[in-house]
Backbone:
């Protein structure tokens, strides 16, 4: 079963073409990892999936809804079903960590204050941040910020969670913890995740499928095993991290 | 050709900007119309944007009131019409200088602060984060500031009117020996309650301009910290220009048709 499709999407910023006829399928109940060079457009693909970007041509369908047909207001409502963990966390720096995580519940549900507190505590606990609840984002380390961003993304049980480079720039232990966290959160929510990552170890540890983005299109897609055995020289060069090969440096 | 191209680009840019401002205003108006207002945030903004601008507004109006009085008191004395000085100060303050100066000073302080805050939220992806959480940046960020400013700017203008008159009264006595009683009598005689109200109406419009321009500039910030600086400067410059232009239009509409007394 697939939860989302990107269908022949093309997108340019000014005269810079980022995506050209890019197609991708997101399988329900699985973790799909999106890999590609820096600047390839991975963050842009994630933004297509929750309608933060619209393709110039092509279609994006999520949970059976064609995002292009939604009005601005319906699109905003629709996004409640999709969690997004930003590359640089994007916590609201005027609020405590707890308030950041509570915000979606306060705005979108009629839960009582005690229920919200309970859910926020449970969610923060599941990413190991319960003790940071009253702290401001500026007081947290990079790894803590990422985890607070995860908590905010998953707190209202979205069916689809999008993670943008959840482990980039973090130490190996935290990377391991975050990888486990993503895997565990997906199981708990019984949902679907798309993870943009450069970190091959963590992709192999948590991923079910891999899609590789290159020059604006998905050039390889399959289960982790399939992609690792790919005969495409571009994919192999990327996975080996080799200087020699078809990828221009 | 080059010139035409430049003009074309300028026109497109202008139309795009105007369209952006209009659609932001319409979006904000819809939320206000449906009473989707966050009250505690509105109070916080009223404090930050309004209450905290009090000192600077009081200082500028005090000195402006005093300078008008200084200029007119000496003139009036030499023509033997010192009974007009209070009226002159009150007339100019209530209709023009009170609302205008307050708005310009607040645009410099609060308009810049709004653009800078929203601009840095854009570059740190916090505005996208709101959208990603299914929240409208207009509802969360623009509406509270708009209501706060459209309420607080008229209040600040009342303070500005009062302090300008009081400052003028003090100065008229010091430099021209005009007694307080005569000054007050003159204020009463030559300024109309109506003028004060129309001045406050102007303040409401100026408050709207300051916030919408500040927010729009903030939202269209690109290119990191340097971009934030640019949007902030732009917010101040554009809102001050719009304040002057709209002030002229409103003066014309509100006062222009009245036969000269
Ligand atoms: N809002 C924007 N305006 C202009 N250009 C943009 C914008 N967003 C992205 N781009 C451009 O699109 C390209 C793809 O950006 P994107 O952020 O999707 O890449 P990425 O694969 O996530 O890179 P990284 O691994 O470095 O995060 C980049 O060249 C970037 O300069
Ligand atoms: Mg990216």
Residues:
């Amino acid at each position: 079963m697939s939860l989302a499709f990107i269908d022949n999407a093309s997108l340019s910023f000014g005269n810079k073409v980022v995506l050209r006829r890019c197609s991708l399928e997101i399988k329900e109940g699985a973790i799909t990892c999106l890999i590609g060079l820096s600047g390839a457009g991975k963050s842009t693909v994630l933004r297509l999936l929750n309608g933060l970007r619209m393709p110039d041509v092509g279609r994006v369908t999520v949970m059976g809804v064609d995002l292009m047909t939604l009005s601005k207001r319906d699109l905003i409502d629709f996004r409640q079903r999709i969690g997004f963990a930003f590359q640089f966390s994007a916590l609201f720096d005027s609020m405590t960590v707890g308030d950041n995580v509570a915000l979606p519940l306060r705005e979108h549900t009629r839960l009582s204050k005690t229920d919200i507190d309970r859910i926020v505590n449970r969610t923060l606990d599941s990413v190991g941040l319960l003790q940071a609840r009253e702290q401001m984002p500026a007081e947290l380390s990079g790894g803590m910020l990422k985890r607070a961003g995860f908590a905010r993304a998953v707190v209202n049980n979205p069916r689809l969670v999008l993670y943008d480079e959840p482990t980039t720039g973090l130490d190996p232990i935290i990377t391991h913890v975050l990888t486990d966290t993503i895997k565990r959160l997906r199981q708990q929510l019984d949902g679907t995740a798309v993870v943009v990552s450069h970190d091959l170890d963590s992709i192999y540890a948590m991923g079910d499928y891999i899609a590789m983005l290159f020059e604006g299109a998905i050039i390889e897609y399959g289960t982790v095993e399939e992609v690792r055995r790919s005969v495409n020289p571009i994919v192999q060069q990327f996975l080996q991290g080799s200087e020699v090969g078809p990828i221009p440096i | 050709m080059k010139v035409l191209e430049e003009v074309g680009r300028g026109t497109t840019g202008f139309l795009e900007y105007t369209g952006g401002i209009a659609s932001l205003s319409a979006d904000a108006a819809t939320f206000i119309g449906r009473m989707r207002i966050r009250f505690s945030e509105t109070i916080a903004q009223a404090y930050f944007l309004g209450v905290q601008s009090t000192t600077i507004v009081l200082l500028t109006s005090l000195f402006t009131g005093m300078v008008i009085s200084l200029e007119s008191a000496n003139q009036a004395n030499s023509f033997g019409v010192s009974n007009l000085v209070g009226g002159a100060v009150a007339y100019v303050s209530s209709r023009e200088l009170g609302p205008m100066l307050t708005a310009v000073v607040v645009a410099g302080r609060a308009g810049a602060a709004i653009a800078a805050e929203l601009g840095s939220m854009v570059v740190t992806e916090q505005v996208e984060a709101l959208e990603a959480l299914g929240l409208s940046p207009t509802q969360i960020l623009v509406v509270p500031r708009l209501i706060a400013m459209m309420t607080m700017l008229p209040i600040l203008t009342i303070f500005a009117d009062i302090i300008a008159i009081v400052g003028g009264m003090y100065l008229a006595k010091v430099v021209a020996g005009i007694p307080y009683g005569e000054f007050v009598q003159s204020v009463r005689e030559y300024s109309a309650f109506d003028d004060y109200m129309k001045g406050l109406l102007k303040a409401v419009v100026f408050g709207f301009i300051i916030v919408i321009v500040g927010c729009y500039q903030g939202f269209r910030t690109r290119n990191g910290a340097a971009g934030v600086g640019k949007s902030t400067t732009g917010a101040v410059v554009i809102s001050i220009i719009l304040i002057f232009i709209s002030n002229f239009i409103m003066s014309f509409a509100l006062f222009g048709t009245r036969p000269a007394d």
